[in-house]
Design a protein that fits this description.
By secondary structure, this protein is α+β, with helices and mostly antiparallel strands. The protein is built from 29 helices and 33 strands. Among the domains are: 21-97 and 877-950 and 961-992, Zincin-like fold (Alpha Horseshoe), CATH 1.25.50.10; 115-209 and 226-302, Sandwich (Immunoglobulin-like); 422-555, Orthogonal Bundle (Neutral Protease, domain 2); 562-640, Immunoglobulin-like (Sandwich). Helices cover 40% and strands 20% of the residues. The protein is globular, with a radius of gyration of 28 Å. The structure holds ligand BES and zinc ion.
Length: 992
């Protein structure tokens, strides 16, 4: 299905909710490995992969998604500096990670060590003097007493800041006497600071930074012709000296930005604009004020020559008229409309759903080309990766449109869940991210008018990535207990599993109960930096229930397993359902299990969805008054992030799945039953033991039924016809052979295509006709039905194009794909066709069509960066024997660059997700990734460490593959100099 194909790859490159590489540990092994890792405090991480959101839609490639993430070392490092620090490694990975000599090097930080600040900043005024090649930043901090004892410690990254002056209450401070700088901290002795609760001091600093040289894209940097900032999590310390932690919430009274008027006509900051005007020498300035207290990670300024679209929104019930404006480089202004509309929808949705209104007079969004993440929720001034903001029908797929809407929603929803109420410390990250992902998922489900479709997509992503993370060496609870580098802490677990944790509150407390909990949470904590425990208390207290048991979800890593067994007693007409749970928690978790019962004889639902509260290790639930035996539909809507298994192998298991695939009233579970049948057939094919089983019959029956489904639920139909992705399949395997897995899945796919060829073709033609008659040309509709039709037709095209054993078949397949490519105006259909064509090989006519389509696509792109990303990506994920050589040639293409994270990921990271080729037995894929990672490390350590993560899962593969991956890792570890970010990743994976 498209969402697990190339689309996910790029979504994965950008988003923490994105794809991860395959996990191949069996559940038992995985759990024990995870437990061991956890005991060693192996907090792991992943990157908010940002780089490129290119929603491709290859229906031919159901790739394994190698989503590089980071893994922390187990012991404190000696490295100095944050991600910027480049250092020469003179020791081996092993030695370096165990040294603890430096006082300023990154240390393992523990949640239990949290202490409040003795002094904090209450108010801030800043001045940015932007000059060519250097920017001067003055800040004036009002310092007040907070709690406890100690000096005032300010963060400031030594590699980024040059301190020009520092004074306290008008008096210049003397280094070594009044203050000291040690590595990345500046300490001012407490004796100089306020001694009473209501006393204040004013600290003034002036620093110089070099945005033009900042290729890391953290702090103040230049993207194309514009200046912008990225401060989460620790970028503000690359802008000025400050207590750069989320519990210091301060009011930014005045942020003045001054720059050349012609080159940077637009000057933006957080909050509302106070004034602006000309300054001598062709310069101008603007002053911004943010009345809400905020932590430094939400700070932002932008300066550039920008175009924009604007509108307004009047909040309900307050009636505040908010000016909305979305900016980009002038040439992209025509692509900003969708983001602007999505913003209005988000504002309305949050009012309708949670009673939450926007609180400033302005909401600005800026699309930036060079951005490490997907998007950032800076107060009143969101910054977006262009890939998540720009769209028009010719350049964006349906998935791009959907993704933009959900990311705009996500960042907007942070205004309450994140900004008004933020995290006390970074261990609580899931408090804002898990909750906000849950909110954006619900928003998208409402906008798509199908929560089943949305749930299928989200659960697929959770299983393909987060389960793998939780089963691997990086496993950690949604609220980790320790970390070394904050950059390494934005994981699928914190985000996606965190969203599942929030969803479980909703399932347990019901819609109204959840809303009451949210209301109380805001009532109690507005304007504060709080913890996950505070959220749990609000949920419990608002509903008058003790849900303290639920807190175990915050401290338990690994995916729990729920086993079920059942029996029907004819005499008492009672059905007994016994559930047991296993997890890494010593005490049982509180797990909501949504269940419905279907009568075995009639197929009718006799018990509608009920939420069972599994609180014990083992519990039996009784359902009485049943007139015949029933079949349970378990874990409806995926009511908890667990693995569900039948306690005893049951001869009728597949028959039951076939029954549920046909009859379940729960849309998600119908899909789920089909997926389980497909999985079983693919594994039998992989093991070569398919002959005796009836699985093929069940699969064909389910597939045939899905093909002939009535109605207009096209997306559900498309997903029902789609086999599980290689990453989801791999998650259930002990050792993964990506080449064999790719082949087995491909064989099942082809045999289904062959068996149903005429019906698939008929359906494809029927849809083509329907789509043509309901509008064509430039009229690309974005309603659920139109999107669903395209989704279904492209899944069918994928099946039709996988039949290519003979010259005739290849010719027919390529002709069909070419026809769709040529006749489509919108990117969704064009790109699907291109992806099919890109994997075609053989006769001259076939190759000629492929090359012509690629050339045409490139020419039509006409330099559009996001379309070119798609062009690079579809070639990187192509299923061709010489794909690596092609990728290597593309590295030399004039449009390729390592400095833009989107472009780099579109080719390099996308290739690592082309699992069967990246994992080619000769190890050339690993060497290539190693080389590219080494090059990128000189430019952007966040990006290089993300790329390096493509190698760290070597334990999941055969000994031979593992050894080759390790070799490539060792080469990186030995590289001098190496960034601390990448070093941390590679060395941690080389540790025993
Ligand atoms: N606050 C994050 C952005 C961020 C992520 C900053 C990682 C620093 C490190 C933002 O709200 C976010 O979560 N963005 C996601 C996309 C979102 C839709 C899940 C991202 O950038 O991947
Ligand atoms: Zn977020």
């Amino acid at each position: 299905m498209k969402f697990t194909t190339a689309a996910m790859i790029l979504a994965s490159l950008v988003s923490p909710t994105s794809a991860f590489r395959i996990a191949n540990l069996g559940s038992t092994t995985a759990r024990s490995a995870a437990t061991a890792a956890y005991r060693r405090r192996a907090a792991s991480t992943f990157l908010p992969n940002s780089s490129a959101a290119i929603a491709a839609s290859s229906s031919s490639l159901q790739s394994t998604y190698a989503h590089p993430r980071r893994q922390l070392t187990m012991a404190p490092l000696t490295l100095r500096g944050g991600c910027s620090a480049l250092f020469s490694s003179t020791t081996t990975a092993e030695e370096s990670t165990t040294e603890t000599t430096s006082s300023s090097g990154p240390k393992e930080i523990f949640r239990s060590d949290y202490t409040a600040l003795p002094f904090k900043v209450s108010n801030v005024s800043m001045n940015f003097d932007i000059r060519d090649g250097e920017t001067f930043i003055e800040s004036e901090l009002t310092i007040v007493q907070n709690t406890g004892e100690g000096d005032l410690v300010l963060d400031g990254e030594a590699d980024a800041l040059t301190l020009l002056s520092i004074s306290l209450d008008g008096k210049d401070l003397v280094e070594g006497v009044d203050y000291s700088i040690d590595g990345d901290t500046l300490t001012i002795v407490s004796s100089l600071l306020p001694t009473t609760a209501d006393g204040t001091s004013v600290l003034k600093t002036k620093v110089k930074v070099h945005p033009e040289k900042n290729t890391q894209l953290s702090g103040l940097y230049k993207s194309g012709s514009m200046y912008c900032t990225q401060c989460e999590a620790m970028g503000f310390r690359r802008i000025t000296y400050y207590p750069d932690r989320p519990d210091n919430m301060a009011i930014f009274d005045s942020v003045r930005i001054e720059a050349d008027k012609e080159a940077y006509p637009v000057l933006l900051g957080n909050g509302n604009k106070l004034e602006g005007g000309d300054v001598e020498g062709d310069r101008h300035y603007a002053v911004w004020e943010d009345p809400y207290p905020k932590p430094s990670y939400l700070f932002c300024i932008v300066a550039g020559k920008l175009g924009s679209v604007s509108s307004s929104y009047t909040t309900v019930p307050s009636g505040r008229k908010v000016h909305l404006e979305v900016y980009s480089e002038p040439e992209n202004v025509s692509k900003l409309g969708h983001a602007l509309e999505s913003l209005k929808k988000s504002m309305k949705w949050d009012e309708d759903t949670f009673g939450l209104e926007y609180d400033l007079d302005v909401y600005n969004v800026v699309a930036v080309n060079d951005f490490n993440m997907g998007a950032m929720e800076n107060k009143g001034l969101n910054v977006f990766n262009t890939a998540y903001c720009l769209a028009d029908p010719k350049s964006a797929t349906d998935l791009d449109y959907e993704r933009i809407e959900s990311v705009i929603g996500h960042e907007y929803f942070h205004n309450w869940t994140g900004n008004r109420v933020t995290c006390r410390d970074w261990f609580q990250l899931t408090l804002k991210e898990g909750l906000t992902v849950y909110r954006d998922q619900e928003f998208s489900g409402d906008m798509m008018q199908s929560h089943a479709v949305k749930r299928i997509e989200d659960v697929s992503s959770l299983r393909g990535r987060q389960f793998a993370e939780d089963a691997g060496p990086m496993s950690h609870p949604v609220r980790p207990d320790s970390y070394i580098s904050m950059d390494n802490f934005y994981t699928a677990t914190v985000y996606s599993k965190g969203a599942e944790v929030v969803r479980m509150y909703r399932t347990l407390l019901g819609k109204d109960g959840f809303r009451k909990g949210m209301d109380l949470y805001f009532e109690r904590h507005d304007g504060n930096a709080v913890t996950c425990d505070d959220f749990l208390s609000a949920m419990g207290d608002a509903n008058g229930v003790d849900i303290s048991q639920f807190s175990r979800w915050y401290q338990t890593n690994g995916t729990p397993t729920v086993k079920y067994s059942s029996k029907y007693d004819e005499e008492s007409k009672t059905y007994y359902l016994t559930l047991t749970q296993e997890s890494n928690s010593d005490e049982p978790l509180l797990i909501p299990i949504s269940v419905g019962l279907l009568d075995k004889a009639s197929g009718e639902e006799v018990v509608a969805t009920k939420v069972l509260e599994l609180k014990e290790k083992e519990q039996t639930f009784e359902f009485d008054g049943l007139n015949g035996d029933v079949l349970p539909s378990m874990l409806r809507g995926f009511s908890a992030p667990v693995k569900l298994v039948q306690a005893e192998a049951d001869a009728s298991e597949e028959e039951d799945l076939a029954f549920l695939a046909a009859r379940d009233t729960d849309g998600f579970n119908r899909w789920e039953a089909g997926q389980k049948l497909y999985t079983s057939l693919i594994f039998q094919t992989l093991e070569g033991n398919q002959d005796e089983s009836k699985t093929l019959d069940y699969v064909e029956e389910a597939f045939g039924r899905a093909l002939n489904m009535d109605g207009n639920d096209y997306s559900i139909q498309a997903y029902a016809l789609t086999l599980p992705s290689e990453s989801t399949l791999a998650e259930e395997m002990t050792v993964v052979d990506p080449v064999a897995l790719h082949k087995a899945r491909g064989d099942v796919r082809e045999s289904l295509a062959q068996k149903y060829l005429s019906e698939i073709r008929a359906k494809y033609d029927e849809l083509t006709e329907t789509m043509e008659s309901s509008g064509s040309g430039e009229d690309i509709k974005l309603d659920a039905t139109s999107i669903g039709q395209r989704r279904l037709r492209n899944v069918l095209l994928g099946y039709l194009c996988c039949i290519k054993d003979t010259a005739e078949e290849r010719d027919a397949a390529s002709e069909l794909a070419m026809k769709q490519f040529e006749s489509s105006y919108g990117m969704t259909d064009r790109y699907s066709a291109l992806n099919c064509l890109a994997s075609m090989d053989g006769e001259e006519s076939v190759v000629a069509r492929r090359d012509a389509a690629l050339q045409k696509f490139y020419d039509d792109a006409n330099g559009d960066a996001l379309v070119l990303n798609k062009w690079f990506m579809c070639q990187a994920v192509a299923d061709l024997p010489d794909v690596l050589d092609r990728v290597k040639a593309l590295v030399k293409h004039p449009d390729f660059t390592l400095t833009n994270p989107n472009r780099c990921s579109s080719l390099i990271s996308a290739f690592t997700m082309n699992a069967a080729h990246f994992h080619a037995e000769d190890g050339e894929g690993y060497n290539f990734l190693g080389d590219m990672t080494a090059q990128v490390d000189k430019l952007n350590p966040q990006l290089s460490s993300r790329m390096g993560r493509g190698l760290i899962q070597w334990r999941k593969y055969s000994e031979e593959r593992g050894a080759l991956m390790k070799e490539a890792l060792q080469e990186l570890a030995d590289m001098k100099p190496i960034s601390s970010d990448l070093f941390e990743v590679v060395s941690s994976s080389l540790k025993e």
